[in-house]
Design goal:
The complex is a heterodimer.
Chain A: H1 2-11, H2 18-29, H3 37-48, H4 55-79, H5 82-97, H6 102-125, H7 147-156, H8 165-168, H9 182-189, E1 195-204, H10 206-215, E2 224-230, E3 233-239, H11 248-261, E4 264-270, E5 277-279, E6 289-291, H12 292-298, E7 304-308, H13 316-319, H14 333-343, E8 347-351, H15 362-371, E9 375-377, H16 380-392
Parallel strand pairs in A: 3-4, 3-7, 7-8, 8-9
Antiparallel strand pairs in A: 1-2, 5-6
Chain B: H1 16-28, E1 32-36, H2 42-53, E2 57-61, H3 68-72, E3 73-75, H4 77-86, E4 98-100, H5 102-108, E5 114-118, H6 132-137, E6 139-142, E7 147-150, E8 156-161, H7 169-173, E9 176-180, H8 185-195, H9 201-216, H10 226-239, H11 243-247, H12 266-283
Parallel strand pairs in B: 1-8, 1-9, 2-5, 5-8
Antiparallel strand pairs in B: 3-4, 6-7
Classes of the chains: A alpha/beta, B alpha/beta.
Chain lengths: 394, 284
Amino acid sequence: MLVELFHKLRSAGVPASLTEYLMLMEAMQARVASVSIDDFYHLARIALVKDERHYDRFDRVFGAHFQGIEAAFQEVVGDIPADWLRSQVELQLSEEEMRQIEALGGWEQLMKTLAQRLQEQHGRHEGGSKWIGTAGRSPFGANGYNPEGVRIGQETSRHRRAVKVWDQRAFRNLDDTVELGTRNIKAALRRLRAFARSGAAEELDLDDTIRSTARNAGYLELKMVPERHNAVKVLLFLDVGGSMDDHVRICAELFSASRSEFKNLEYYYFHNFLYESVWKDNRRRFDERVPLTKVLNTYGPDYKLIFVGDATMSPYEISQAGGSVEHYNEIPGAVWFRSLIERYPAAIWLNPELETRWPYSPSVGMVRELMGERMFPLTIEGLERGIKALRRRH
Amino acid sequence: MSVARFDGTDSYVATADLKMAVNAAVTLGRPLLVKGEPGTGKTRLAEEVAAALGRPFYQWHIKSTTKAQQGLYEYDAVSRLRDSQLGDARVHDISNYIVRGKLWEAFESEERPVLLIDEIDKADIEFPNDLLLELDRMEFFVYETQQVVKARNRPIILITSNNEKELPDAFLRRCFFHYIRFPDRDTMTEIVNVHYPDLKKTLLREALEVFFDIREVPGLKKKPSTSELLDWIKLLVAEDIPPEVLRSDDPRKTIPVLHGALLKNEQDVHLFERLVFMAKRNAR
């Protein structure tokens, strides 16, 4: 039973390992948890899940896995004195489950048959009553998880009890495919750090001091080095206006996180796509423009290039001269774009649009091709992949 | 190994899942990694566990410059060099220049100690990896004196993290993990009761009302946390603010009294004022 839960967790994307599974076994053997399923839920989560972003996945798998079994447990408790049952279960667990994992299969089998039998009983017994089918309660169904359905079932059931902890799914918005905040972005950006020593020599270099002292016939000679600090350089291009208005908040968060994380951050804005000039101040975007050639000449190829934009536009805006929506561009955007990519080998494109929607817009495909597939969604998970791609190229 | 159970203390309210996490770590002698919003009592937890179980307490506070080796021991080569130049007799024994770290101190403890490794995410990314073996076997080797330091009693290790860096998988696999959720209203009432047992019920109710309302304001840069609520209540009590003031619908008073304890950022104060203003205008 537990091996199955373990495998379900792994296939749901909770990266639990064998070490952790054995740790859970050890904890059960040491009787850290009592027999209640709530205790087991907490214990399993402590041992198997090591990241709060995976709590929600864990809750869903746990809910689906134990739904039938727990329902069966409930029915049994209703008919038999609870104390007696508890002692029986305790007996069984201490003998079988705590000692040998193989025996777990037996317990599971027992509970499964019980669950099946109950399902049949439900069909005969309460088939006509109103709550079955209202919200599609299917406690033993294939998909299993149905918060609405379960809650209705539980409320009208004979054995009233609170909604299970894992059914509340309190950790829903910690899943890393959904939430982004400046702190998370900062944590992700921090991976891009590259430390270097430059500036005034203020730190004692112990190794060199010892070496020099030895060379100096044992007479102490102090050596100093400059302090380490983050030397990574970032060039940020942000798409503004138009379809990007939907993503203002997330872009602002990314921007503020980058500002505080990188000392050497240069940023420019563009609209839809890159052409011969960009700007630094959106209020004066038509007056104060910086030619892209100047950008290319100012910043060396050691800068890491990050584009932020939804890449959603007409394909002509990329490929054709005069394709821009705001002005007449003599050279196609793609040409400018290529010169940027060639100058800065470490480059990625972050797209705030959902990854699943990318195929619907041909321009996204074109930009991806220009970027050599280095386009990533603007989620924590996507940002991490992007940072990895940036680090790879040196 | 003695199995004492941790059940919270008079001054610390622990939820069921937190108790479970601590007890699992105590029973199996494995490190417990605690994460959670700032101000949810992560660091307090270790102190309270030590107090509740009556164990000696060691705290190793991690900074961005901390190296794993500093927790074990440091070899003070510079002092030794200096002593050698001055002809000090101490110089012949290298162990005079081995400075013990917190981990070593905890390993030497007569009783089973509680060791807190605070804010492990502040250190370098490789920091946790450098401690894998030491935390697993609870022993390490001192190269300079060729001795093995082994824990007399496997310490109860609690580690806190603020999520500024991802921790390596190999490290996580060896720990139990618990994420302290932000307390719900009932737990919060309990926490405040523990800290201010004589607080008037009405004041507490009104204060919690305001507090949770503020937390729900969308777009706040920094949401107020438990420790900030406690500070605020302390101020309310000290200033003897009557509960009615917190409830007042006076449109000129858009923002709760003594808000400085809850909102720590002028953008947040502005945002809050604007939202309250809009809400009041709509209500009229």
